[in-house]
Structure formats: structure tokens, C-alpha cells
Design goal:
By secondary structure, the protein is an alpha/beta fold. It has a domain at 1-78 and 160-165 and 193-263: 3-Layer(aba) Sandwich (Rossmann fold). It has helices spanning 47-54, 94-99, 112-125, 141-153, 171-185, 199-205, 242-259, and strands at residues 5-16, 19-31, 36-40, 62-67, 70-71, 79-82, 159-163, 191-195, 208-212, 219-224. The strands form two sheets. Strands 6-7-8-3-9-10 form a six-stranded mixed sheet, sandwiched between helices. Strands 2-1-4-5 form a four-stranded antiparallel sheet. α3 crosses α4 (141-153) and α6 (199-205) packs antiparallel against α7 (242-259). It starts with a strand and ends with a helix. Bound molecules: adenosine-5'-triphosphate and magnesium ion.
């Protein structure tokens, strides 16, 4: 089967204060249709850059990205993207934030009734029923994440990009949202790329984990996580085999974490 995304020898250099920053170097990888791929790596190694490139928000310096077998030129409207920074519009209510992607250009036209149903269904999926008229400023951190998730699901994209979506949340809430994410995703056949700093999170949820090296980000290790699904994120870390995955991936990450922190 054709992979949904192919990265072919991607490199990306930024220019900052007259200096070159090599964000990515020689990244070659494929993302399979329907898989949950987690990407871990030290701060500043180019994880967000890889997602930005996948969303078509920037072009690679060298190399190529293919989406469904075709070179990606311009914004990728088939994917939804939860960026690292919270980008809910503070002046719009929860339901109006969630509705936003439905008004973008090339979406199939929905009737008012269909729109309403779609929005209320996705708010229910993420547990925000009853908060339709609230503004983002009135929500807790976890609820804002849920609203972002609903917004990214509402137009039913083929692929979701998530950049450290639960990074700033406390450990318990993180587990609850991971469980909800898996419940929402498992069985949908959608492709999900999930960037995280948290190796346990990556192994708990992913089909495959990619470890990136210190900047310039390269692919240092790839591990298939053959733990059964559906998964219970609360107990999976105690499952046989989890520790071995952790040890192998951690040994790939460890040295880079020591020397690789962003300055
Ligand atoms: N638009 C830009 N202009 C200049 N430099 C940039 C730009 N975007 C990213 N960089 C630099 O490229 C490098 C990779 O950045 P990126 O945000 O992709 O890393 P990251 O792995 O997502 O880091 P973090 O884990 O901290 O989110 C960093 O050094 C960053 O400062
Ligand atoms: Mg980032």
C-alpha cells in the first residue's frame, strides 16, 4: 500500500540572527495509512518543523515530501494540525471555534443542520457538551485541549498532526486525555502523527515510535510497538515488553538529551 506520507531526504535550514540553524538533515521516512506514529526527540531537534512541513506550511530546503504519492506543494488541506501553541480564537465561543474548519474553502458544503449535528457530535466525543457557549478563557487547560481536538476532528480529515498536545498538563489529566484520544482514534483508520517529549506516552499510544537526534534532527531509531489494542494507557506501562521498548528507545535518546538541550 502507498504510504500516506513519504519524506525523502528532507533537510531544512533556518536563518536566525544572521546564523544558520540546521533544523533537519536527511530525514527519510514513511508514514503508513492508519498508523499512530509518535515522534520523540530533544528540544529543538526539528519535531515541530517536521509537522509544519507535513502540513505544507513551509517548504523543505532540500528533499521532497509526498502525500498520497504526489509531491506536496502548498498547504495540505487534507490534514488537521493541533499546533504546539494553543490557537483557539479567544473571541469565539467553543462551538464557533470548533466550527471554524467547516467554513474553510474546499470543504464539502454542509447544511446548517448538518453543521450543527457535526459540531455537537464532536463536542460530545471530547466531553465538552454543555460548554458550547463558553469562551476559551473560561476553560481549564484540559478543556482547551479537548476543544482543539474537537476542532481538528470536525471536518473528518484523513490525517491528524498533533504537536505535544498534552505537554503542559499534569500527569493525571494527561493520562485521561491519552485514554480519550485512543478511544476516539482506535478503529477510525485515520493516520495520526503525535509529537511528544514523553517516551512513556509515546510507547503507550503508538504503533511506531521514531526517535530523532539532536539538531540537525535526523532519524536515530525507529521501533514498532507490538502491544495489543485496544490499549489501556493506565495499565499498559506494566505490560510485558513495555520495559524493553522503553530501554531500547531510551538508549537512543539518552545521549542526545544530555547534550542536545536548546540554548
Ligand atoms: N521559523 C523559524 N525561524 C528560525 N528558526 C526556526 C524557525 N522554526 C524553527 N526554528 C529553529 O529550528 C530548530 C528546530 O525547531 P523546532 O521548533 O522544529 O524544534 P522542536 O523539536 O519542535 O523543539 P521543541 O521540542 O522545543 O518544541 C530550533 O533551533 C528552532 O529555534
Ligand atoms: Mg516543537
Amino acid at each position: 500500500m502507498t504510504p500516506i506520507v513519504e519524506y525523502r531526504d528532507l533537510s531544512k535550514v533556518f536563518y536566525k540572527d544572521n546564523k544558520q540553524v540546521h533544523a533537519l538533515a536527511h530525514v527519510t521516512a514513511e508514514v503508513a495509512e492508519g498508523e499512530l506514529l509518535a515522534i520523540v526527540g530533544p528540544s529543538g531537534c526539528g519535531k515541530s518543523t517536521l509537522l509544519n512541513l507535513s502540513a505544507g506550511l513551509m517548504k523543505p530546503g532540500t528533499g521532497e515530501i509526498r502525500y498520497r504519492g504526489k509531491p506536496l506543494n502548498g498547504v495540505n488541506t487534507q490534514v488537521s494540525y493541533i499546533t504546539q501553541r494553543d490557537n483557539l480564537l479567544p473571541w469565539r465561543t467553543v462551538e464557533d471555534n470548533v466550527a471554524l474548519p467547516l467554513s474553510l474553502g474546499d470543504r464539502p458544503r454542509l447544511t446548517k443542520q448538518e453543521r450543527r449535528e457535526r459540531i455537537s457530535h464532536h463536542l460530545e466525543v471530547v466531553g465538552l457538551t454543555g460548554f458550547e457557549k463558553h469562551y476559551p478563557g473560561e476553560l481549564s487547560g484540559g478543556m482547551r485541549k479537548r476543544a482543539q481536538l474537537a476542532r481538528s476532528l470536525v471536518y473528518e480529515p484523513d490525517m491528524l498532526l498533533m504537536d505535544e498536545p498534552f505537554g503542559a498538563l499534569d500527569a493525571q489529566l494527561k493520562l485521561v486525555l491519552q485514554a480519550e484520544l485512543l478511544r476516539t482514534w482506535e478503529g477510525t483508520g485515520k493516520t495520526l502523527m503525535f509529537v511528544t517529549h514523553d517516551l512513556t506516552e509515546a510507547i503507550s499510544i503508538a504503533d511506531r515510535v521514531i526517535v530523532m537526534s539532536t539538531r540537525p534532527g535526523r532519524i536515530k531509531a525507529v521501533e514498532r510497538i507490538d502491544l495489543p489494542r485496544p490499549r489501556d494507557v493506565f495499565s499498559i506501562r506494566f505490560a510485558p515488553g513495555f520495559g524493553d521498548y522503553f530501554d531500547r528507545l531510551w538508549s537512543a535518546l539518552r545521549d542526545d538529551i544530555r547534550q542536545g538541550q536548546e540554548v
